[in-house]
Design brief:
By secondary structure, the protein is mainly α. Helices cover 63% and strands 6% of the residues. The protein has helices at residues 7-14, 18-26, 45-59, 64-74, 82-114, 126-133; strands at residues 4-5, 34-35, 41-44. A hairpin with a 5-residue loop joins strand 2 and strand 3. The chain is elongated and about 70 Å long.
């Protein structure tokens, strides 16, 4: 792997759209890269690692604000991790609430689906009727 990357390389290596990388630069999640003599953005491995970190956080559902805080916190490796613990705990509570909502939704869909036998017309469809009551 090269020590220098162009924006397309970063996009390919991290499965991130180029426009998203530029957006991350504009909002300060990614540092503004150096430019080559031909005015191309030039990234180093540290920036590739940062983008991978951001992508992993996004995959885990962290907001951009939370990621910005995690990026800031991760930049000082001597700092105690209690702030990271608090941030991730708060995120866990949000995730668990979403899981509970999704489980309730799944149960409701099962209940509605059990009313349908697939051998009727829309005018007598119990699923449409249940959704209309909601």
């Amino acid at each position: 792997m090269s020590d220098v990357f162009r924006i397309g390389d970063l996009a390919r290596l991290t499965n991130t759209k180029v426009v998203t990388i530029r957006y991350y630069e504009n909002i300060g999640l990614m540092p503004v890269p150096e430019r080559s003599a031909a005015n191309y953005r030039v990234y180093e491995k540290a920036q590739l690692d940062r983008l991978r970190f951001i992508r992993r956080c996004r995959d885990l559902g962290f907001s951009l604000e939370q990621i910005a805080e995690l990026v800031t916190l991760s930049s000082d490796d001597q700092k105690p991790c209690d702030e990271v613990d608090a941030l991730t705990h708060a995120h866990l509570i949000e995730v668990e609430a979403k899981v509970a909502d999704l489980n309730a939704l799944a149960a409701e869909l099962r209940k509605i689906g059990a009313q349908c036998h697939g051998n009727t017309t829309i005018s007598n469809c119990r699923i449409i009727e249940a959704l209309d009551r909601g």
